[in-house]
Write a structure and sequence with these properties.
Layout (H helix, E strand, L loop, with lengths): L3 H11 L11 H18 L6 H38 L11 H34 L1 E6 L6 E2 L5 E2 L7 E5 H9 L3 E3 L1
Antiparallel strand pairs: 1-4, 1-5, 2-3
Amino acid sequence: MITYNEIYEAVRKERAEELQPLPKNFLDEVSVYLKEKKEFSSKNIDDFSDSAMKAKKQLENARTLFKELILRRRKKILNLLLIATETGISKKDSENMLEFEKTMFENLMKSVDSTESQVNSLFNVKTEERIVSGKTIAFKEDVDEFFDMEGKLIGPFKKGEKAELDEEIAKILVESEKAERL
């Protein structure tokens, strides 16, 4: 059976940067420990003895430590998730995860991949639409950088330079006599 000191030691080790290995039965052992401490405290509820007070305090502290441990591990797993979505992940990064953490990680990876695919498909459609609806213009004068309709910085453009721009932007530049349609 696990002890309070072992829970404390697990939290202390988890303060390191990497996800720390835990025994496969760690959650079960902590659950049994907390249950036994709770039963002991509730049996001796009227007893203000040192052992009852100590057991109650250890129960509170053990719960706090366990919550801290889970929170630290969750943060590390989320950081691994962010890294994995950008670079890919090796299996060794998930070696120290408990089963429920691996499941959470895999589900989050699927969700992020799905969302990323949706964003990429939207981006590709908008890019294709912009190219299809683009108008080629020639600049009559130098034009400084400016933001397009999507908030993206474009330019600067020199006199005589040609560019394919969104129809709306091309119209504004032609109407202000800074460019002409080709």
